[in-house]
Amino acid sequence: MTAQDHIVTQPVIETERVDLRPLRRSDMGLIEMHAADERVARMTTSIPHPLPPGVTESFVTRAMVSDPDEVVWAMDGVRLDGPEVMGLISLDRMDRNQSEVGYWVAPAFWNTGLASDAVRALVEANPLDNDTMFASVFQDNPASARVLINCGFAYIGDAESYSVARGGQVPTWTYLRKLR
């Protein structure tokens, strides 16, 4: 069995609008199309712009290994006749039973509540059985800050993170959600 054949056993998390499901190789085209959009890349720390060949394939391959450091779900709208990939959401494992939530939504679905639905569902499911979840957003992305606040995250301070697409440090707001 190769890494490409591995069956991921992470849970599917259902919301009213989308299913959060493990990535599959067939997602690469839509992920690449959305991630190549400069508006998406500039609001993340890790997506380069322009998107080099092979980046998406490498990302999906890493997400499909058993017990990855970063557990990634596609926001899949097929159940309600939507696209298979409307965005991605992830939990990056940290020490002391904590994770960092990360997400991006394709521009066609901005300001629709999709990110709030996905974050809320992930927090409620707590698939890694975390005690605490963190998240950071760039300060020029107040919509993402509202998503976190709407999902019960509390602001804990300012910081900065490197953005590959922007080629430099970007001021961030950091949020925390205690789960127990």
Explain what this protein looks like in three dimensions.
The protein has one domain: Gcn5-related N-acetyltransferase (GNAT) (Aminopeptidase, 3-Layer(aba) Sandwich), CATH 3.40.630. 23% of the residues lie in helices and 32% in strands. It has five helices and eight strands. An eight-stranded mixed beta sheet has the order 1-2-3-4-5-6-8-7, with helices on one face.
Notable traits:
180 residues; alpha+beta; Aminopeptidase; eight-stranded mixed sheet; 8 strands; globular
List the helices and strands and how they pair.
Blueprint: E1 13-14, E2 19-22, H1 28-35, H2 38-41, H3 55-63, E3 70-76, E4 87-94, E5 98-105, H4 114-125, E6 132-138, H5 142-150, E7 154-163, E8 168-178
Parallel strand pairs: 5-6
Antiparallel strand pairs: 1-2, 2-3, 3-4, 4-5, 6-8, 7-8
Count up the domains. 1
Morphology: globular
Number of strands: 8
The helix-and-strand class reads alpha+beta
Q: Largest beta sheet, briefly?
A: 8 strands, mixed
Determine the strand fraction and express it as a percent band.
25-35%
The CATH topology comes to Aminopeptidase
CATH superfamily: Gcn5-related N-acetyltransferase (GNAT)
Distance between the termini: 39 Å
Which residue ranges are poorly predicted, with pLDDT under 50 across at least 5 consecutive positions?
1-8
| Top-tier CATH class | Alpha Beta
- Please list the strands of the largest sheet in the order they lie side by side: 1-2-3-4-5-6-8-7
SSE topology string: EEHHHEEEHEHEE
Q: How many DSSP H or I helices?
A: 5
Q: Share of helix among residues? A: 10-25%
